[in-house]
Amino acid sequence: MMLERSDLRRLRVPFVAALLLAGLGVAALVLTENNLAEDEQLRKAGHDRLVAARDQLAKVSEEEQEIRNNLVQFKQISDRGMTGAERRLEWIETLGAIQRKRRLFQVQYNLEPQRAVDYPGVAQNQKGGAGTFMASKMRLELQLLHEEDLLNFLADLRAAGGSFASVRSCSISRTEGTGAGGGPLRPRLRASCVIDMITLKAADKT
Fold first, then answer.
1. Average pLDDT in the 101-123 region?
2. CATH code (residue 122)
3. Which pTM was predicted?
4. What is d(CA 171, CA 78) in angstroms, rounded to the nearest whole number?
């Protein structure tokens, strides 16, 4: 079938209209894809913000719980009288009281100057905190009748309050001769101990 020139002239308008409609269809498709991509970006951004908000909330909750735990621990430390300056006079009186209570033959002591504790994990964790754990090293020499005297002495020292008694080392050896006390009841053992008397020093607020 042959088209006449007049037929082509009549088809020009529909052909142009068809091209315009096709162009509009392509433009609509591209616009729809762009809108979908933007919607996906917005959805992802919203999801990311939600995840970040949840993470932040969880972090705040963890920090709040950590603060609560620290306050509980601080209260326990405070209740035991471990806060503030070292209590050398109280410790010396405690040693004498335990010696009399346990009827120990002899208790000799030497207290070194106070310093920050150097225990692994403690020195790093307390940097920038509410306080610093301080230790006064006490060297003890005890004359004992038997090993249980040493265990009772350490238990009494820890229960006395005013500090936390951390035993760094203890050695026991047998004594020679009669020693202090004389008679049938005489010290048979000598204990040498190094004990840290630990207190909590509040951080400077300046």
1. 85
2. 3.30.70.60
3. 0.58
4. 32
